[in-house]
Amino acid sequence: MLLLRKLPGMPGWPAALGLRLPQKFLFLLFLSGLLTLCFGALFLLPDSSRFKRLFLPRRAAAGDPDLPRSPPAAAEPRHASPAAPRRLRDKLRAAARLGAPPAHTAASAGGSPQRGQPGAGGAEAGTDSAPAAPRQTRAPFGFDYETFRRSLRHPVLGRGGGEEPETRARRLKIREMMKFAWDNYRRYAFGKNELRPLTKNGHIGNMFGGLRGATIVDALDTLYIMELGEEFQEAKSWVEKSLDLNVNGEASLFEVNIRYVGGLLTTYYLTGEEVFKSKALELGEKLLPAFNTPTGIPRGVINLGSGMSWSWGWASAGSSILAEFGTLHLEFLHLTELSGNPVFTEKVMNIRKVLNRIEKPQGLYPNFLSPVTGNWVQHHVSIGGLGDSFYEYLIKSWLMSDKRDTEAKKMYNDALEAIEKHLVKKSAGGLTYIAEWRGGILDHKMGHLACFSGGMIALGAEQAAEEKKQHYMDLAAEITHTCHESYARSDTKLGPEAFRFDSGMEAVATRLSERYYILRPEVVESYLYMWRLTHDPKYRQWGWEVVKALEKYCRVEAGFSGIRDVYTTTPSHDNMQQSFFLAETLKYLYLLFCDDDVLSLEDWVFNTEAHPLPVNHTNLKAKASVQ
Ligand code: DMJ
């Protein structure tokens, strides 16, 4: 306006219109009001609006959903938002400070950034509205392993000393069992997925899509923790030389994640050896195509070579399974942590978003969800198989975030409340159990898998409202007691795959098909948590009963085998040494006879395959910045 007036040979607008002074004044007033209105309206436009990006400085208009709208970060209350997005925000901000577009721009456009390359989401500085910084090239993302190690509150393997000779002897016995299981696997099945201890050969199976060495990757951290140095080196050099990730074949997204990605991540955190990190990240990227569904809920099966994914044939109407897509969170957050690539975190945060959006019947989470429509497919609810580790990962997400992921905590609390209201029952004989729910009808059955829940409920009790803490500790103890009963009531002192509370029976398998024991860990897992959280000596006693039973009924000449019927003392062996026996059962038993500072629960959260992942202590922030 003013400019126009001063242009030579051009009369001012109002003059040109032939207006008088008061009219000119009114006209000017009207125009300035109009301008203010237009400019002010810019702030009301959605962040994505092109006009906004055109007129406002870049930072204010960025509109990234992960960036806080208000108040600014410094004013954020400590528990205001989940930890994962917060860390993501920190990284995005760090990238923005260097003028780099956030890494996920590249990732979500289909190409994942090359780690360690300047082009990994890295551009030139200088587009920010902050005071002009000297032009600099973005350095590669780096994870500072030493900073991470310094952040741990306890030595990984504890301080040692001051224990009872009996405790030490029992621990060493379990170490010997691990060595026996490993030696036989190495001798007869090295490089295969599992050992067949009766026929003395290897088993490959079809769960890992052509990947081999499941027992090696699952056993790595147990060998390390038990200080079986030579054996650990054998396992490590196999991973270095022979773990081939360029495979084809149908893999379970869930199994590959919990065993391979989990095992590799943990071994990296324990040792700092790059090979474990790079393999974990490479494999993690191969899992990403499974999320390419209309809802972002991954399908259960993926071809690691082609990236094609589909649902399990047995899952009703092409659905995805709660315990499968709900058991990725811990590992995926660590994949982001180590790579700087937010895509992993984005994928699992989206799963949460979908779950939070849909209605839950009576507050319960059914086990089958359509990845296409995002609706529940069947109303079967269980804290055992098909549901189990979804609940586990909610409370563990909260713990792993150093107690900042309040969204996970709330989801866990709400779910547990609904489970308690609808599924927790007491038998006539006074045993507390968690039944299954089929469209509103209760099935009074508890699977062996559901026995992890004693430990989980104890672990979660700490965050409960003051008046409920003791209640949850009591509930955890009662469930663990029931699971112990399922062992104590069998002839072998090992528990069946499922036990029931009907027809006058309590905590025993009533069907022939449910009498087997395949070296599963869930009951001893609960013993470990209960021991660490209460120090009631009965849990060590119960753990020792399991050791004796395993030795008596599952140990064969060339390893450990599952048994077909826990109710007979002349068992028939199933000829399979499951990899989770080395990853979980023996690890939990060993830790039960260790001091609490060995893999302290303050520093580590166990994934569902017992691979410990570090808690993201607040003072760890520095480690994940762009160097
Ligand atoms: C393990 O692979 C994991 O614990 C999983 O969450 C459930 N099943 C087995 C052990 O029973």
Bound molecules: 1-deoxymannojirimycin
Mean pLDDT over all positions: 83
* Number of E strands: 19
Q: Which structural class should the secondary elements be placed in?
A: mainly alpha
**First-last Cα distance:** 49 Å
Describe the structure.
Mean pLDDT is 83; it is low at 1-18, 38-136 and 619-627. Strand 12 (436-438) and strand 13 form a beta hairpin. It is globular and about 110 Å long. The chain is 46% helix and 8% strand. Helix 9 packs antiparallel against helix 10 (214-225), helix 10 packs parallel to helix 12 (253-271) and helix 17 (388-400) runs parallel beside helix 19 (453-461). The chain contains 23 helices and 19 strands. It has a 3-stranded antiparallel beta sheet. Bound molecules: 1-deoxymannojirimycin. 1-deoxymannojirimycin binds at residues 389, 449, 520-521, 580, 584, 608-609.
